[in-house]
Write a structure and sequence with these properties.
The chain is α+β, with helices and mostly antiparallel strands and 431 residues long. 58% of the residues lie in helices and 17% in strands. It has a 5-stranded antiparallel sheet with strand order 2-1-5-4-3, sandwiched between helices. α5 runs antiparallel to α6, α8 packs parallel to α9 and α9 packs antiparallel against α10.
Length: 431
């Protein structure tokens, strides 16, 4: 009985020790789990705080914890690499943006960029000096004149619709000329804004105007010299040849020898041919009909002479009354008409030419149309079209223009438009 009780006590003691051992082992395991969890939590907090080099160092942990730490470290390394790449891309973008900003600021002309709400989002220094600070504003909110705002809004809408707007403008207050370009900014074919460029062309314009003034002066001098030579040839040489013809006629009356008479007759005919040549040269140098009877009569005379020389029928539609035109402008129209007829004779292979002259809206308009082979290429791009270029420059020097276009069916139409007198520049505003 006593031995049984002793055995039970011993078994109970062993059970207590076993339970205590199991409890101690379980507590130590829980402590180990909590420690590994705290380490992983701390690493996660460091990672979320921006420390991308942090790693979960669980070298003495069980295999499951080491696998978890390995996945965490791989994730942290990947995040670190991506962040490094992102920082590099952002640095490159900032450098590119800085270069673009510097380039825009260095432009020698005005540049601005507006968003889809018509607010200016970019403006370079050149534009800033002319218009003031417009960043973040619509032109209507910037104190600009009504004319400027209306013109800007109209061009903005045209550009937003996909059109590239180009304009030549003159600012009378500043005395400057500008070439404006307003275009849409497209992304994937859709507008995201509108950009504008304004180039100061004043110096270029002044150089052109100076060159054209010099050209006008040279042409005027040449016309004056041609007039002087034509009169000298017609009057002096013509009078001398006429006197010689009279002398030959007297000689014919004084001699009876047939051989001498025949020779005098031949000489008289030569003198007559020389007189005709003198008159032709004088007319080509400066037609007297232009100075004496005006442009309408001169064109009629030139058309008849052209038909006689070339055999090309020349039909005219001219006003009955003389035109009210400055002499220099009448000379320009007549010289352009001569060059147009020369081109018809040389290149068109035409059989007929129509000439029309009208004066309307303070402009004189001359149209020369032929039924020839027409245009094969752009005449203004042909390096050999010096005659056409000369015609256009002659007209532009007097604020006019020359156009060359295909005829309604075939052939070519040359149209000259010239103001009857010089007109001042019209004022235009543009942003």
């Amino acid at each position: 009985m006593d031995s049984s009780r002793e055995l039970i006590r011993n078994l109970f003691s062993i059970l207590l020790v076993a339970c205590a051992a199991i409890g101690a082992a379980s507590g130590m395991a829980e402590l180990s789990i909590f420690r590994h969890l705290r380490e992983l939590t701390a690493a996660t907090r460091r990672l979320s705080a921006g420390n991308l080099t942090t790693r979960a160092r669980l070298q003495d942990a069980p295999s499951e914890w080491r696998e978890l730490a390995k996945e965490f470290d791989a994730m942290a390394a990947s995040l670190e690499q991506r962040t490094r790449e992102r920082d590099h891309v952002e640095q490159m973008l900032r450098a590119a943006e800085a270069r673009l900003t510097a380039a825009i600021e260095s432009l020698p002309f005005e540049f601005w960029l507006a968003d889809l709400e018509a607010r200016i989002v970019t403006q370079n220094a050149t534009s800033l000096r002319r218009w003031g600070n417009l960043i973040g504003k619509r032109p209507a909110e910037s104190g600009l004149s009504v004319d400027v705002v209306r013109t800007w809004q109209r061009n903005y809408r045209r550009a937003l619709a996909g059109e590239i707007v180009t304009r030549e403008v003159r600012d009378e207050e500043a005395g400057r000329h500008y070439h404006n370009i307003i275009a849409p900014v497209l992304m994937d074919g859709r507008p995201t804004g509108v950009l504008g460029v304004s180039i100061d062309t004043t110096d270029h314009r002044r150089a052109e105007e100076t060159l054209r003034a010099l050209t006008r002066r040279l042409r005027a001098v040449r016309e004056e010299e041609s007039t002087r030579i034509a009169r000298a040839v017609h009057d002096d040489l013509g009078q001398a040849m006429t006197a010689l013809k009279f002398d030959l006629a007297w000689c014919r009356q004084q001699v009876t020898a047939p051989a001498v008479t025949d020779k005098l007759i031949t000489m008289t005919r030569t003198v007559d041919a020389t007189l005709q040549t003198v008159r032709r040269i004088a007319a080509e140098l400066r037609p007297g009909v232009l100075d004496n009877l005006g442009l309408v009569a001169a064109i009629e005379w030139q058309a008849q002479d052209f038909q006689r020389r070339t055999g090309i029928a020349c039909h005219t539609n001219l006003p009955e009354a003389p035109l009210n035109l400055e002499p220099a402008r009448a000379t320009a129209v007549f010289r352009i008409f001569q060059e147009a007829l020369t081109n018809v004779a040389r290149h068109s292979q035409a059989s007929e030419v129509g000439v029309a002259l009208v004066q309307a809206n303070n402009h004189v308009i001359l149209e020369v149309a032929d039924n020839g082979i027409g245009l094969r290429t752009d005449p203004w791009q042909d390096a050999h079209s010096l005659g056409l270029l000369g015609m256009r420059e002659r007209a532009r020097s007097l604020q006019g223009d020359v156009t060359v276009s295909p005829g309604p069916i075939h052939g070519t139409v040359v149209c000259v438009s010239l103001p009857t007198k010089e007109s001042p520049h019209h004022r235009e505003f543009a942003l």
